[in-house]
Amino acid sequence: MSTYTDLSYTSTDGLTLHARDYAACGGPARLPVICIHGLTRNASDFDELAPWIAGFGRRVIALDVRGRGRSDSAPDPSQYNPMVYAGDVIKLAHDLGIERAVFIGTSMGGIITMTLALRRLKLIAAAVLNDIGPVISEKGLARIAGYAGKRCVLTSWEQAADYIMTINQEAFPSNDMAEWDKWARRAFVENEQGQLVLRYDPNIAVPLQTGKLKPTSWISRMAFRRLARNRPVLLVRGALSDLVEDAQAGYMRRTAPAMQYALVPGVGHAPMLSEPPAREAIQQFLSQVD
């Protein structure tokens, strides 16, 4: 199983952004994979997926989107939007000399991937959309708005695990405390005062809290059509998801009949992609892409 090296690059507006670079573990050269996390998450969400994919001979880049993890925060909250995020991905690919890649986007990461289809389709060889699409449920959007961007300062890892459990337990009812502790250590970092703080800029949630992020738009639907009708796409969906429910998944499957689909039982938004049904679907999907 491969380990990663840290890499940094500079955005077009001067931010220093971070990513993890997992080297391919032998085999013939194949297209790299770029993994993009969800709204309040960071590159560590791919701790298990990235080395697993690298084991099949693909280089994997897992991003810290601006304002998250080890990437700089944006000075203006209006810069926290999919067009800017997509521009950061384009800059990263340019700096690394990547002309084409397979994208795996969880939640917001999938929105960024669809946005890339509008801005730089040629960069996308294929895409995995993890529990996200051009139409999302207002129920899930409201739930995320209820906690995203709320400042949280804790004093112990036990408190951090309890916090992560509180906001995720409905979606992951089978998780034990060891799993919640693992998630907490991905989500929080210890500051200079010895306190645990979330690893993201609270301002990332401003578009959501101000209602600028809508359940759907003509642009998002156009982006999805452009992606799914021109590139291989796999939708991975949590069976308990409150963001991509049956209605939203049905819209995607009708709009893009060739899209592959994998349902992950027992979990909600968003699968961690370590679940056996998700792994099986991703492995099969990647086997079809050089």
Unreliable stretches (pLDDT < 50, length at least 5) are none
What's the alpha carbon Rg, rounded to whole Å? 18 Å
Biggest sheet details: 8 strands, mixed
- Write down the CATH topology of the largest domain: Rossmann fold
Provide the helix percentage. 25-40%
The helix/strand class is alpha/beta
Q: Termini separation (Å)?
A: 21 Å
Would you identify the CATH H-level superfamily of the largest domain? Alpha/Beta hydrolase fold, catalytic domain
How does this structure look, described?
35% of the residues lie in helices and 19% in strands. The chain folds into two domains: 4-145 and 204-287, Alpha/Beta hydrolase fold, catalytic domain (Rossmann fold, 3-Layer(aba) Sandwich), CATH 3.40.50.1820; 150-199, no CATH class. It starts with a strand and ends with a helix. The protein is α/β, with parallel strands linked by helices and 290 residues long. 45% of the residues are buried. The strands form two sheets. It has an eight-stranded mixed beta sheet, sandwiched between helices. It has a three-stranded antiparallel beta sheet with strand order 7-9-8. The model has no long low-confidence stretch (mean pLDDT 96). It is globular. The chain has helices at residues 49-54, 82-96, 108-119, 138-145, 157-168, 177-187, 206-209, 218-228, 246-255, 276-287, and strands spanning 4-10, 16-22, 33-36, 60-64, 101-106, 124-130, 153-154, 188-190, 196-198, 233-238, 260-264. Helix 2 (82-96) crosses helix 3 (108-119) and helix 3 (108-119) packs across helix 8 (218-228).
